[in-house]
């Protein structure tokens, strides 16, 4: 099996896979292990659509032919990628990563919390909401910093 393409969520990969299956081309979806997607109730992540090596050219040609039909049908709908970039999703991730950071892997989850906070602030239009949420997320970072301080103090003596 060879990779035909990478999709931003499982649904898109499944839609393309079903189109190929309807034309006799077997497919397999190989997805990322994005556990926060499970917690947030979404299917975001990287999903590779795999097809047999000998059918890769056929799959590409079929997608080229059907792409214009799909574009014509989707012209009046909101693109799926726009739905996945709503500020609320970044807010959920920022809060979730802050809370997880208190329990495990503090540095990694604090980083992703702040990264999603930045994305949220770029997408949100309400200035008052932006300030409140930024303060909330930053306050959620404090327990991890305190825990890290005491851990380092215990491990290496007086700092």
Q: Quote the distance from N terminus to C terminus.
A: 54 Å
Runs in which pLDDT lies below 50 for 5 or more consecutive residues are none
Beta-strand residue percentage? 5-15%
Dominant shape? elongated
How large is the radius of gyration? 21 Å
Number of DSSP strands? 3
How is the main sheet built? 3 strands, antiparallel
As laid out across the biggest beta sheet, the strand order is 1-3-2
Determine the fraction of residues in helical runs and give it as a percent range. Answer: 55-70%
Average per-residue pLDDT, rounded, comes to 77
User: H/E element string?
Assistant: EHEHEHHHHH
Count of DSSP helices? 7
What descriptive keywords fit this protein?
single chain, 159 residues, alpha+beta, three-stranded antiparallel β-sheet, 7 helices
């Amino acid at each position: 099996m060879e990779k035909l393409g990478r999709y931003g969520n499982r649904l898109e990969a499944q839609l393309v896979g079903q189109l190929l299956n309807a034309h006799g081309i077997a497919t397999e979806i190989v997805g990322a292990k994005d556990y926060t997607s499970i917690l947030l109730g979404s299917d975001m992540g990287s999903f590779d659509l795999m097809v047999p090596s000998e059918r890769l050219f056929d799959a590409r040609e079929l997608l080229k032919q059907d792409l214009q039909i799909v574009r014509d049908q989707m012209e009046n709908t909101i693109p799926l990628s726009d739905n996945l970039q709503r500020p609320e999703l970044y807010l959920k991730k920022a809060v979730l990563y802050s809370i997880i950071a208190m329990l495990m892997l503090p540095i990694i989850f604090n980083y992703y919390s702040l990264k999603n906070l930045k994305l949220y602030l770029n997408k949100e239009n309400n200035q008052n909401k932006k300030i409140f949420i930024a303060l909330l997320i930053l306050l959620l970072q404090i327990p991890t910093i305190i825990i890290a301080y005491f851990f380092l103090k215990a491990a290496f003596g007086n700092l």
